[in-house]
Amino acid sequence: MSDTELKCPACAEPIANGDTFCEACGAELQAPEPSAVSPDDTAPIPRTTKIVAVCAYCGGSILDDGFCGTCGRKARSPRDHWSELPVPWVGGVCDKGVVHTANEDAMALSATPGGSLAVLVVCDGVTSAPHSDRAALAASRAACGHLTAVVAPPSESVAAAVSYWSDALLAATSEANAAAVGVAHTLGDPAEPPACTFVAAVVAGDLITVAWCGDSRAYWLPDSGDARQLTLDHSLGTEMIAAGTAAREAELEPGFHTITRWLGADSVDHSPEIASQSIEGPGWLLVCSDGLWNYASALTEMMTLLTDLSASSASDPVPLAEAMVDWANAAGGHDNITVALARCDPSLRLERERTTRG
Amino acid sequence: MAEFKAEVFQNEFLAEGATDVHAVVSVTCTAAGKAGQSGQGEAAEIIIVDTSGSMDMPASKIVAARRAAKVALGEIVDGTWFAVISGHSVAQMVYPTHPGMAKMTDVTRREATHMVDALRPGGATAIGAWIAAATELFSQVQTAQRHAILLTDGKIEGEPSYALPQALEAAQGQFQCDCRGIGADWVVEELRTISNALLGTVDIIAKPEDLEADFEAMIQMSMSRGVADARLRVWAPQGSEVLFVRQVAPLVEDLTPKAVQVGPLIREFPTGAWSDESRDYHVAVRVPVAPLGNERLAARVEMVINDEVVAKGLVKATWSADANLTTRLDPAVAHYTGQAQLADAIQKGLAAKAAGDDRTATVLLGEAAKIAHDSGNEDTTRLLSKVVDVVDAEAGTVRLKSNIEKTDEMALDTRSTKTTRIRREP
Q1: Interatomic CA distance for residues B16 and B303, integer angstroms
Q2: I need a surface site. Which of A15, A143, A262, B20 has the fewest CB within 10 A?
Q3: B295:A70 CB<8 A
């Protein structure tokens, strides 16, 4: 159906049959039955609330009024909570949290089956700017799409690889920013345009390269050896701490979370900062929004959290991400929570690559 | 085919930690049709006329009763099952002459009218026996819609005290009954108990000459109820507690004790037959507390006919830190909370007065005068002014009148539950 491409009823961007929400703007969609769309059917796809059969919270039945028949909670829309698992070693969960009424976080994950390349992107929409949920989704998907299409470099030195992926991430950040600006255009360029943070991580062979704008974070959390926070928040809080305020004290300041770099039509500076990390042994790459790290802001706390949860409940990326989201919700869930994980293990990677080639 | 509509009026916003959700659900029925003609079976009507000895003192009472019963017979639609009972120490069949019911035709109407003309007073007042007889008669016809009118002029004397409660227990859910007291020698509480149990109304007919018009209106109303039986179904979430379900318009009536549990989270309340009309219900639910920002359903309020949901309203709860949202009182909830307090203050005030506790009576009736004034309930204000001198309505200051007609006091009592509707924003 190339000449009768499905379009999002909200922003008119193309959508795929079966999508539950628009990849460009985040509007909820009800996928039409394939048979219901004839080639000359130009009627717009109705926007409806998705009716979920089972309550995500208590297991009761969601009734046709959109609420659970047992606990009365509102049915969770796919935009409020979803998970991605492009390959078994890369997965993530994006969740509305407890307090916010909308999920303005977004994530986009992809990976090659062989395991030599993975892309993890997380964006956190700015709540004070309306429709930032759309900007976050558009930006994360644009960057992920761009990075997935990048051809892996020929085997070179680590320095050359870092430089290669840094360039790719710079271009991906520009793509992401253009997508966020594009959302503002479809909204008629509002005075307060949608905006979002940005963090993208590429795992290529045994190298992690990250680019970021704002206060969404990436961590390298190895099974043994030193953990590392790969990103440094672009926020007033970081500036306060840099100027000598104690971290615990700074976190209590009202301006702590005010970000100093972001993507969007009103962004002053969307050039990302770049960092890299070589993988020497097995460990987890964690990319997350502040909805998670607010409750574990120190590196040691995050390491402990991941260690505890992977030991007690889960060792696969999605169940582990779910466990971390649940933990943040139990701690208050004051913001949207996104947790994206890649299980990096050089020996397993080589194994996978051999299997794929064979 | 009747159509129902349910509208919810509430402030869904709760402050952090708050648990109590109040909503007024306004249910409107249109295109109700006529009794016995909407596919839910035929209608049945019984007229119970008090023929105890006191109905002859003065004789104008029995004369008015005969005339009113005949007018009622004239209003009963052809094809309706009907019977007339003469109530004294026992319940005696007037028409048909055997214990059963007749189909209304020109012939049976003429015969029944003739028999009503022959009613003669004598004997005691045994309302329990009359209700039991009506229950028995109704059980003989397979109809969904059964309605009775009960007229009396005295208090129960001719039967043991358990007779009425026993009769009401058997009658509940079998038929609806509107009660009328004529004169000043009947007991408001007795008739209110009956009308409450049997989903009817109660009123005083102070002057016998007004009885005819009242009977005519009652039967016309009954015949306009094309929906035989509708129930109010209330779902409340797991872990919640339904604090009360109260009809608040046109009359205040606590439905809470009438709840029938039909599922773990669902209870139903009988509402009887419906004409083209609107009734308001105040529903209060205590829900488990949820974190700020959460939106939950506190109640689903549905109208149900033959197990089919014909209208539905959603009562919500959303926890918010915004005090501007959470402190606002919904005008409908506030208004009807006041109207329920008004009815309560009048009934308790009059009871205190009857018990000789003038101080309590003055305080409560003063409170009533204030609420009636503030809410623009002019009917109640007028009835109150016959029992108390209103010194300052805004402050709720009143003085008990010394010489009052007993019927005025009874009128205030019986009509205390009548509410004014809130004026809705256009």
Answers
A1: 32
A2: B20
A3: no
- Output the average pLDDT for chain B: 94
Tokens of B239: 């872990």
Q: A63, A53, A109: which is closest to A83 by C-alpha?
A: A109
The answer to pTM > 0.80 is no
CB contacts of A100 in chain B (<8 Å) are 293
Q: How many CB atoms lie within 10 A of CB A53?
A: 7
Cβ neighbours of A60 in B, within 8 Å: 238
Q: Do B4 and B32 form a contact (C-beta atoms < 8 A)?
A: no
CB proximity list for B66: less than 8 A, separation 6 or greater: B49, B116, B117, B119
CA distance A119 to A87: 11
Contacts of B239 in chain A (CB under 8 A): 71
Residue with tokens 């409170």: B367
ipTM above 0.85? no
Residue of A72, A98, A100 lying closest to B297 (CB–CB): A72
Question: Cα(A20)–Cα(A25) distance, rounded to whole angstroms?
Answer: 12
Q: CA A136, A142, A144, A147 torsion: positive or negative?
A: negative
Considering only alpha carbons, which residue of chain B is nearest residue A58? B238
H or E stretch at A342:
strand A337-344
Of B360, B391, B393, the C-alpha closest to B375 is B393
- Beta-carbon contacts of B165 under 8 Å, excluding residues fewer than 6 positions away, are B128
Q: For residues B203 and B369, what is the distance between their CA atoms, to the nearest angstrom?
A: 21
- What integer pLDDT is reported at residue A29 of this predicted model? 58
pLDDT mean across residues, chain A: 85
Cα separation, B374 vs B395, whole angstroms: 10
Q: How far apart are the first and last CA of chain B?
A: 28
Listed by number, the residues of chain A in 86-125 with a beta carbon closer than 8 Å to a beta carbon of chain B are 98-101
Distances in Å between the Cα of B295 and the Cα atoms of A99, B185, B238, B337, B356 are 10, 55, 15, 25, 51
Phi, psi (rounded to 5 degrees) for B68: -65, -40
Q: How many CB atoms within 10 Å of residue B140?
A: 12
CA distances from B307 to A280, B231, B310 (A): 67, 9, 9
For A49-85, how does the pLDDT look when each residue is reduced to its tens digit (9 = 90+)?
A: 334 468 878 888 888 888 999 999 988 888 999 999 9
**Is the backbone peptide bond immediately before A32 cis, with ω within 30 degrees of 0?**
no
Across A71-75, B345-349, B411-415, least confident range: A71-75
pLDDT value at position A12?
Answer: 64
| B78 at interface of A, judged by CB pairs closer than 8 A | no
Q: Residue by residue, what is the 3-state secondary structure of A77-136?
A: CCCCEEEEEEECCEEEEEECCCCCCCCCEEEEEEECCCCCEEEEEEEEECCCCCCHHHHH
User: Tokens 């969007």 identify what position?
Assistant: A264
- The total of other beta-carbon atoms located within 10 Å of residue A168's CB is 22
